[in-house]
Amino acid sequence: MGRRVDIPDLAFAGFLLALGGLAFHLAGELQIGRAGEMGPGYVPRGLALVVVMMGLGMALRALFAGGRAFPAVAFRPLVLIGTAVALFALLLPRIGLALTSAAVVLCSGFAAADVRLRENLVLAVGLSAFAVALFIIGLRLPLRTWPW
Length: 148
What we know:
This protein is mainly alpha-helical.
């Protein structure tokens, strides 16, 4: 009788192990220091180690927790969320934070199958106003608000 493996948890454990390994490698040339005199590599390596340990723990759990198949990939959210990230990078320097925030919220909002246009528009306006209030007015970041 074969052992059943939780494939989604095992896949995520692999992701965590790869991410932690990459972070540990990237922090490899930074000085660690000591607990009393921390160097610039102390915290990144510590966090990388924590991520690797979490990945190992999740992998062990996945091996013994019981079987579960990998779910089907939903391409609509994957494409729309990726597009929203690209829109943010492309639009922010050109049309400002207010319109970029609204465009990103509208695009990513349609990743859900049950989204309603009116609710998405209200959310886009509200989150755009919040982004402007937080980043431009509150934190005084040097970002364009509007295209003009």
